[in-house]
Amino acid sequence: MLCDVFEYVNLGYQMQETAMKWRLFMLNVKNLTVAYDDTPVFSDVAVQFNAGKITGIIGPNGAGKSTLIKGILDLIKVKKGTVDYDGKSMKSVQKQIAYVEQRKDLDLTFPIDVFDLVLTGTYGKLGLFKNPGKAEKQASRDALEQVSLTEFSKRQISNLSGGQLQRVFVARAIVQQADIIILDEPFVGIDLQSETAIMKILKQ
């Protein structure tokens, strides 16, 4: 079973009378149950994720942490329960959520360099048949600078360390301009420097 869902860091937020305001969103999970062949992975999970906070899910291997994330994101079929984002279905707000899956689930043999991978984070808001322009390319360069990987922009992702690769996907999430960033096992197999850098970015 899942051990706990806990608030890792309360960053807080302040509403300001400016053109850019914090969105007060809430992700609601109600009585979520996932089962494989009628064998429950977890049952009746209920939790709320609020704006301005970093939240972590803990539990032993095989407890269902990744399955819970995929159930929340509507990537797998759930037996029962609901998930909504500000009262909207998850399918309707996919562009507002950035998901960084476990590295073991990634195809690192795909021939793409760091810059182009980060640039794919802009595709969701461009619309069909529209190519990234100067603004999207500059946003990708800025994101790479933010994660201290500018010099790796033309390197193939297969030639990155675990920590570097994780920072690349965080940069992709940044250019996506998502309201929510969900990271699955973000610190497994990465160096302390990368872990510290990722936490610093998320706190911003």
TrEMBL record:
Gene Ontology molecular function terms on file: ATP binding; ATP hydrolysis activity
Pfam families: ABC_tran (PF00005)
Span of domain ABC transporter: 27-204
Keywords: ATP-binding, Nucleotide-binding, Transport
TM segment ranges: none
Keyword set includes Repeat: no
Superkingdom of origin: Bacteria
Entry keyword annotation includes Transport: yes
Family the UniProt entry places it in: Belongs to the ABC transporter superfamily.
PANTHER family attached to this UniProt entry: IRON TRANSPORT SYSTEM ATP-BINDING PROTEIN HI_0361-RELATED, METAL TRANSPORT SYSTEM ATP-BINDING PROTEIN TM_0124-RELATED
Protein name (database record): Manganese ABC transporter, ATP-binding subunit
The species this protein was found in: Companilactobacillus versmoldensis DSM 14857 = KCTC 3814
